[in-house]
Amino acid sequence: MEDLRPGHYWKTPFVWEVGCPEPVSVSPLRYEAAEYEWLQDAVEQTMATSMDASDTFAVSQSGPSKAASELVAIAPEYFDTPPGWWQVAKDSEENRVGFVLPVMFKGERTWRNGRP
Q1: Is 3 part of any domain?
Q2: What is the rounded distance in angstroms from the CA atom of residue 109 to the CA atom of residue 25?
Q3: Does residue 35 lie within any of the structural domains?
Q4: What does the alpha-carbon distance between residue 115 and residue 99 come to, in Å, rounded to a whole number?
């Protein structure tokens, strides 16, 4: 995959600090491990219509299907993704309505204050 041009980033990371209270859930959504084929299609659809600069750039370079495949394929090289972390969100009627792809960046160069 080509490097993004300067000023473009894959995504902005966030950190949950141990001891911070977890937000109260107000949604009837539930989450479960995402099935690979469904997730691949969902990422493709999301990237195809995304307003995110990195997604737009990746799709313009290779199309939504290849951009999604590359994003999912490069994850193990750059991120730790323990089994079950990539999840699908389902509503109260069991419809798949979204997904989350949390990761932990690999390599000490990405750490802050000695933590991944």
Answers
A1: no
A2: 34
A3: yes
A4: 26
> Long-range CB contacts (< 8 A, 24+ apart) of 106-110?
106/77, 106/78, 106/79, 106/80
pLDDT digits (tens, 9 = 90+) for 60-111: 999 999 999 998 888 888 888 888 999 999 998 999 999 998 888 888 887 7
Distance CA 99, CA 110 (A): 24
Would you say 21 and 81 are in contact if contact means Cβ atoms under 8 Å apart?
no
Instruction: Lay out the sheet containing 96-100: strands in order across.
Output: 30-33, 87-90, 96-100
Of 48, 41, 42, the closest CA to residue 63 belongs to 48
List CB contacts of 56: < 8 A, sequence separation 6 or more. 50
The CA distance from 13 to 102, in Å, is 9
Counting the structural domains of the chain, the total is: 1
